[in-house]
Amino acid sequence: MNESKRVEITWPSLGITVTAELDQRNSALAQCLWDALPYQSLQGHALVAGYHLYHVAPVHSLLHTPAQYRVDRRTVPDGTIFCSRLQHLGIKYGELTEPMTATPVGQVVPDDLDALIQAGRDVWDSVYTTKQPVIAEVRRAGEAGGHQLPRLPIGDPQLNELVKEVHAETERIWLDPPRELLDLHAGRIPSGAGSYETVLTTLLFVNGETRPLGYSCYGGLVRAALDGMPMPWLRQMTRQLAHTPAEFLGYCGLDTLWDFTQRLLDGLERLDSHQDFIAVMAHMALYCNCLGGWNLHLFPWQAGEHLHREATPA
Fold first, then answer.
1. Which Pfam families does the annotation name (predicted)?
2. Are 245 and 213 in contact (CB under 8 A)?
3. Which of 140, 174, 196 finishes a domain?
């Protein structure tokens, strides 16, 4: 790819569009993003690291595509765009405090940095206060927008049917909050999860289990398969990593996730090729990452408004 390729990131509900140039720092990652355009996604905001926007990108290859160039996010210019193995497209728009290495793929053009800052503030308000979802659209500059979720083929008919349903459910909740999470956040929890009838405690634990299930379990299994881990070990690692958190999340109200997980575990012995294994785990990763994005958006962060970090002594 050449350095002239430009993308537009727009937030229609905010009336803001910024243009970014993709570059050669991580050309393979940038190409993954370019090939997947256009798409739409729920826009999120960092809750710990600082002034940083990110959303889940529907790009399976981000889970494993190698990066040639890494940076400390704190040290790069505002407007830097990153793609990560968490299936995120991230944009720095101000100070960051987390010393995390990241993989840059481009830069918002200087004339659009003020608009980017305004988008960051508006998205923070959406995530922290109003809970009105903000949808981002990423497209090739000058081209039409649109949206579709990729579907990977599976050789085994039974597991192909599972992936078909996982894909359909992911597509259904991609831009609309899952009913199960809406019920959970409203305190409608059939199992009675939540000691002394509390809800916030359950929400906290659901958030803490959902994110690593997508990021570490399923994303990690994709990378392990691509690194050549033998199939028997991959099956065993799947059983060890996926069952307990998914069962807990099912108890908390995420019945669809638990149903998918049980069917996956029941069919593991049918997976006899790395290609099929990677495809199944990639679809589970995207589904869990989508759930995680919605849970972060819906979570009542203002419950901690009375708690603020003390100023660092000079």
1. Cucumopine_C (PF18631)
2. yes
3. 140
For residues 223 and 292, state if they share a domain: yes
CB 44 within 8 A of CB 53: yes
Say how many domains are in the chain. Answer: 2
| Positions of the chain with pLDDT under 50 | 1-3
Query: What is the pLDDT at residue 3?
Result: 47
Residue pair 191/185 in contact by the 8 Å Cβ criterion:
no
pTM: 0.95
Query: What does the alpha-carbon distance between residue 287 and residue 283 come to, in Å, rounded to a whole number?
Result: 6
Are 117 and 239 members of one domain?
Answer: no
| The two structure tokens encoding residue 176 | 């609309």
CATH of residue 45's domain is 2.40.100.20
User: What residue numbers bound the domain in which 263 lies?
Assistant: 157-301
pLDDT tens per residue across span 161-220: 999 999 999 999 999 999 999 999 999 999 999 999 999 999 999 999 999 999 999 999
Q: What mean pLDDT, rounded, does the chain reach?
A: 96
Q: Which long-range contacts (CB under 8 A, 24 or more apart) does 159-163 make?
A: 159/264, 159/267, 159/270, 159/271, 159/276, 159/280, 162/260, 162/263, 162/264, 162/267, 162/280, 163/279, 163/280, 163/283
Partners of 16 in the β-ladder: 11
